[in-house]
Fold these 2 entries.
Entry 1:
Amino acid sequence: MNHFWRLLWKETRELLRPRYLLPILLIPVMFIGLGQGIGGIDDAAAGQPDIGILNEDDGEYGELVNASLSQNAAVVYYAESGDPSATIEAVSEAGGDTLIVIPDGFTERIQQRAAGNIGIHSVVRSLSLSGITSSTQIKRQVDQAGTALTLNVTGTTPAMLNPIRPEYTTYLEDKTLENTSPGALSGSFATQFIFIPVVIMFVIIFSGQMVINSMGAEKENKTLETLLTMPVKRSTIVAAKLIGSASIGLLGAALYTVSIYYYQSSFTDGAASAALSLGIVDYAIVGVSLFLSLVGVLALALVLGIFAGDRQGAQMLLFPISILAIVPMFATMFTDVAKLSLPIRAILLAIPFTHPAIAPKRLLLNDTTMVVGGIMYEAIFAIVMIWLAIRVFNSDRLVTGSSGRVGQWLSRLQQ
Amino acid sequence: MSPTAVQVTDLQKRYDDVQALRSVSFSVDPGEIFGLVGPNGAGKTTTLRTLSTLLTVGGGEVSVFGADVESDPNEVRKRIRYLPEDAGSYDNLTGRQYLEFVADFYSDSPQELVEHGIEIADLDERIESKTSEYSKGMTRKLLLASTIMTEPDLAILDEPTSGLDVENARTIREIVKEFPGQDRSVLLSSHNMLEVEYLCDRIGLLNEGEIVAEGTPPELIDQYDAENLEEAFLEAVA
C-alpha cells in the first residue's frame, strides 16, 4: 500500500467512527420517518372514511344524499331515528369516527330552493395530523353529495357546474409554456429543484465538518507532529485528508439526497413537468459545479482546521462555513438571484457555494453564461484554497497554530 | 554515511515579537547521544522541531546527514524519527495497529518492524488494547517503540521521560541508551540532569536561544569547576 492509500485509509477509518457517523445518519432517518408518516396520512386521506348515517328525512333528497355517501364511504352504521349524541357512540363502537345526520325536513328545504343542513358529528381520537385527514375526507364526501343533489335538482350537466375552462399560457424568460399556469409552474419547479440547494448545503457542511474534525482529532490526539515528520510529502497528507473527508461527506450527502427525495415524494405524485426538466448534460454541469464547490470547501475547512485546538474547537470553526452554505441555500430557495439588486447579487455570487445552488435554475432558463462563469470562479477559488492549504501545511502555523492575528482571532472563537 | 549526523550552524528563529533562537550551533556525530539541556523557554523544542522539519529555519543552516532541512525536507524525514514531548497516538487504534500504521511507512515488509516494536514496548497483551485505554507510561513506551523500531539514523526525542514515574522513566532510559549503533544517533532534550549525565555522550547547554556551553558531562563539570552537571548548568546560565 503506498503512502497516500495508507493515509486515506487512516482518515476514512477515523471519520467512520460512530461519533462522526451517527449524526449524519440520524437526520436521513428522521426525513424518511417523516416521509413515511406523511405518506401514511396521504394514503388515509385518499381512502374511504368509515362513517355512520342517521337519515331522519323520509324524502327523495335525503335518500339521494344517503346514496351518494354510501357509494363513496364505508357506512358502518345506519339508522333512521335516534339521538345523535347516543348514535355517535354506536358509530364509534362500530369503528367509525363520523356520524352524518340528515335531519327531518331536509327534502322540503331543498324543494323550497333553500340550503339544507347536514349535521356532522365527529369523534376526535387524537390531536394530530390524522385529524386533518379525517376532516378532509368527510368534507369531500359532503361536497360530492352536494354536487349530486345540484345535478338532480337543477337538471344541469357537470360541465355547467364549471362552465369556464381556463387555458393557460405562461411565459418564462424565452420559454413559452402551454397549458401551464404560473402556480403550476412554480409548484413543478419547487417539486423538482427546491431540494437541490438543501442537498448542496448538506454536502458543504458535512464535508467541511469531516475535514475540520480530522484536524481537530489530530490536535486532540497530539498525533499531528508525528504524522508530519513521517517520510511523506505534505501535499500527500493534504490530499489524503481532502479525499477521505470528501468521500464521507459525499456519502452523507447521498443519504440526505435520498431521504429528502423520499420526504418530498410523499407530498407529490412524483410527476415532473416536461417543460422544467434538465438534460443529462445539464446535470453533468451541475455536478462539475458541485464538485468544485466541494473541493473548495474542503481546502478552506482544512485551513481553518489547522487552527482547531481540539474537536470541540473544530466544531466552532465550522460556523463560518455553515453561514456561507446556508445563505445561498435560502437565497436560491426563496428568490431568483439574477433578479436581486446588484450589491446583494454581488455578495451572493462572491460566495462560491451559491453557484451550484443556482446552476439548475439558470440552466433551465438557458442562462449558461452565469453558470460557466460560476464554474470558472469556483475553480479559481478551489485552486487558491488548495494552494493555501499546502502553503499552510508547509509553514510553522501547523505547529504553532495560534500565532499571528488570524490565528489569535480563531483561537478566541473557540473559547 | 555522512561523517556528521546533525550540523546546526547559527540557527535563529523568531515567533512574532519573541526571538526564540538567537544563534544555535552544534553538531552530532553518528553513534552519539547528544543532549540539549536548558530551562523552559530556552529553545530546546524549537531546535528539535526545526531539525524534524516541523518548523522553518529563521536563519542559519541546518542539515541532517548532509540533507538541508529547508531544501530537502523529504530526505531528512526518511532518516529521522521524532518523538515530541507531548505526543499521543490515534485513540481508535490498538497498540499493535498503531505500530503497523507507522511501520508501513518505513518498510515493504513491516511485520518485522512491528514485532520489534512490540518487543520494545513490552506491553504484553495490552498491545491489543485501544491506545485510548493506555496510561501515560504505556503510551510513552508505545510511542518510543514506534520511534525506534524503524531503526532511524537519527532519533530525535523531546523530553523522552517527562511526566513518567520512576519505573517507566528508567525503562525508557534503558531503551534509549541501547539504541545507538555505529550509524545511529540520538538527539534528545531533557530537564533531568541525572538522566542527561547517564544517557548523553555530549551535551549542549542551551539558554535564551543560545548554546552557552558544549562538551561531555565530565568536560562541562570540569569547565565550571562544579561538583555535578546541575551545578555546571547553573554556573553556565548564571
Note: The beta strands of chain B are 6-15, 18-28, 33-37, 59-64, 67-68, 80-83, 154-158, 185-190, 202-207, 210-215.
Entry 2:
Amino acid sequence: MSSAAFALSHNFVAAAGEGFTPPGLGEFIFQPYFSDGTLPWLTKPLVASVFAAVVVMVFFLVGSRQRALVPGRFQFAVESVYTFVRNGIARDVIGHGFEKYVPYLVTAFAFIAVSNLFGVIPGIQFPTLARLGFPLALALFSWAIYLGIGIKRAGFFGYFKSVMFPPGLPVFIYPLLAPIELIQVLLIRPFSLALRLTANMFAGHILLLLFTLGGTYMLFNESVLLKVLAPFALASAVGLTSFEAFIQVLQAYIFTLLSALYIAEAMSEEH
Amino acid sequence: MSFNLIASTAITASGESISSLLPKIEELLVGIVGFAVLLFILKKFAYPQFEATFQERTAAIEGGIEKAEKAQEQASAALAQYQAQLADARGEASTIRSEAQADRARIVEEARSEATAAAEQVTSRAAAQMEADRLAAKAELSAEVGRIALDLASRVVGEALTDDARARATVDRFIADLESSTQEGTR
C-alpha cells in the first residue's frame, strides 16, 4: 500500500515537472476510503460493484412489478432486456430446457453490462470488472453451473470421460486430446471468461484515460503545436467513450453467450 | 535525477503490476456473495413475474384472436342469414308482383265485362224505351190516322160518322187489317 501511495505521488510529481506520464497500472489501484486503517478493504471498485448489483436489482424488481399486459415505456424496456437474453441467448443457444438457466444468464448479462457501463458514467468512471476479482467471481458461477449440469447428467466419471474421450476419434488422438480437453473445461474456460472481460475493460479504461489526460496535458502545455492538437485528442476521447459503451455491452453479451454455450454443451449427450 | 525517477517509476510500476492484476480476495468474495444475493432475489421476485406476464399476454392475445375468429364466424353467419332473408324477400316480392299482375288483369277483365254489361243494359233499356215510344207513337198515330180518315171519309160521304159506333168499328177493323198487312210485309 505504501508503495502504491509512493507511485501515485511519484506520478504526480513526474507529470508536473518532467513531461507527460501516461496512465498505467496505478490507475487500477484504489486507496481505502478511510485513511486511518478502518475497513481497509473498502475501496471504490468494491462499492461500485455493490452499487451495480443494487441498480440491477431495482431495475428488474420495479420493472417486473407492474405486470401490465400492455406495458408502459419503462416496463417495456425492462422486459426487453429480459426477453433479449431469454430468447436471444438462452433459448437460441440452449434450446430445449433453457428456462432453468434464464435467471442466471439474465442476471449475469445485466450485472456485467451495468458494471462495465460504470466505466463511462460520469461520477464513477471506472469499469469495476477491470479488477479481476469480480469477473473471476462471475466466471466461477458459470464454471460451477456447467460442471454441475454435466456431472448431474452423466455422473462425475461419466462426464469427465465424455469430456476427455469423445467417441468417434482415432485412438492415438486421445493421449493428446484428453489432457487438453480436461484443462480446457476445468481451467481455460473460466479464466478465459474472466480475463476476456477484465482485459477489455482494462484496455478501454486505459485508452480513455490516455486520450483524456493526454489531451488535457497538451492543452496546458506551453507548446503551441500541442495546444492546437489538443482538441483532436479530446474529441477522440469523446468518440472513444461511445465506442467503449458499445464494447462494454458487447462484452456482457459475449460473456453471457459463452456461458450459455458451455451450459448447452454440458447438457447435450454428445460432447 | 530524471533517470533515477524514471527508473524508480518503472520499478514501482512493475511491482504494482502484480498487485493490480491479481484478483483481490475481498473483491472475489464480494463478487460471489453480491452476485449470489442478486441472483437469488431476482430469481425469486422478478423473473417469475416476467414469465407470468408473458403467459398472460400470450393468453390474452390468443383469446383475442379466438374472439376475433368467433366474431368473424358470427358475422359470416349473420351475412348468410341476411342473404337468405334477402332472397326470400325477393321471391316474395316477385310472387306479390305476379299476383298483383294477375289481380290487375282480373280486375281489368271484370271492369271490362261489367262495363260491357252496363253498356248492354243501357242499350237494351234504350231499345226498350225506343220500342215503347215507337208503340206509343204508333198507337197515337193510328188513332190520329183513324180520326183523320174518318174526318176525310165523313167529308167525302157528307155525313157525320164521328160518333157512330159502327164507323168507329169499321176504322178499327181497317187499321187492324192495315197492321196485319204491314206486319206480314215486314216479315
Note: Confidence is low (pLDDT under 50) at residues 1-14 of chain B.
